[in-house]
Amino acid sequence: MSRIVRRKPMPRRSLWLAALFIAALALGTDEFVIAGVLNAVAADLGVTPGTAGQLVTAFALTFAIGAPVPAVWLDRYPRRLVMCGGLTVFVPANIGCAFAPDLASLLILRIVAGLSAAAVSTTAFVAAAESAPDGKQGAYLSLVTAGLTVALFTGVPVGTWVAGAWGWRSTFVLIAAVAALAEIVALATMPRLPGSEPMALSARLAPLRRPAVLRMVVAIFLCGTGGLIFYTYLGPISVYALGTDAHLPVVLLLVVGLVGVMAALLGGRLTDSYGPRRARLAILGGHALALALVAIVVVVGSSPWVFLAGAAGWSVFAWALNPPMQAGTIAAAPEAAMTAVSLNISGLYLGTAAAGAAGGLLLDRLGATAIPIVGAVALAGAWLIAAPSVGTRAEAGEG
């Protein structure tokens, strides 16, 4: 069985890695920014905020369900071609959103943006893994993860501010401009990474039949559900725990965001130092424990600073998780890495959708205290499922 060939870093390594980071920043902003401009979009298009909220659903579900399809089809092509081709679709799709006359056309454009974002995101992770020198795969993967994390506390607030100053449509122009910058840098500096060797479709779909890959997908689904159920409903949880959501901006922007970026890089370092399996089990275990401690804080009540400390502890593990999970998935199917990574991304986004649905139900029926408790249980389940090794040297961190 072939393995991912990691090539020596290119002379312009920092620049093309910056392109992956910037692209991830644009994708993350496009995914989350609707929440900040929801009321403005609804008022302008003459629909209810609930109806306008389906723009988020359209993007996320398209991303999740559609990710494996372009991955299987595009795996044979050079990574730079796929990356820049996806951005070439993503940029005009967002410009189109800025000029969409009604909700129907905006929904269609969001679906197009979601499909192209799925191709770009999958390619970014695979290109980072394939180009990493020995012992640096986790660090390279963490840079892509960091781009998505930075979007939470820079891209989304800036996009919302731009919408307040020049209208919600200008936000999509900003996203398109950032993505165009990523494409220009990638075209100029990205190494010539070939696609996978020619193989039958059945071989490309092999990860679908591999228990190790499916375990990782189920585990990342539970991670998305358990971790993001807390993040999605941080507002109501803050109100319950603190009596007010006045501290929520601090939690989101400073604690979750800043700690999250450092945590993403830490996850990469742990993956390189100890191997994907040990890193993911340590981080997953810490993630479940941190959320369980937050649940205790929410139930018994505490000062704002204790709650902030709990959120900071949760952030460390929540955002450190992606590098070892992606590295483990790639190790489980190195000959079809793009397909495996796309399945992993699908699992994460489906978990995000499940977190929103389950969290809303829990909040309405059992109250805010149930959310971190259920989240911790889901993460404990993810730990159990992710515990077995995929049985490769790469999984053990040996190369």
Structural summary, described in words:
This protein is mostly helical and 399 residues long. It is 80% helix and 0% strand. It is built from 18 helices and no strands. It has helices at residues 13-32, 34-45, 49-52, 54-66, 68-74, 79-98, 103-131, 137-166, 168-189, 201-204, 211-232, 234-242, 248-274, 276-300, 304-320, 322-332, 337-365, 370-386. Helix 5 (68-74) packs across helix 7 (103-131). The chain is globular and about 55 Å long. The two termini are 15 Å apart. Residues 1-11 have low confidence and may be disordered.
The averaged pLDDT comes out at 80
Instruction: Determine Rg (CA atoms, Å).
Output: 20 Å
**Count of helix runs:** 18
The helix content is: over 70%
User: How many strands, which pairing sense, and closed or not: the largest β-sheet?
Assistant: none
The total of beta strands comes to 0
First-last Cα distance: 15 Å
Share of residues in strands: under 5%
Poorly predicted ranges: 1-11
The gross shape turns out to be globular
Which series of helices and strands comes N to C? Answer: HHHHHHHHHHHHHHHHHH
- Look at the helices and sheets and give the structural class: mainly alpha
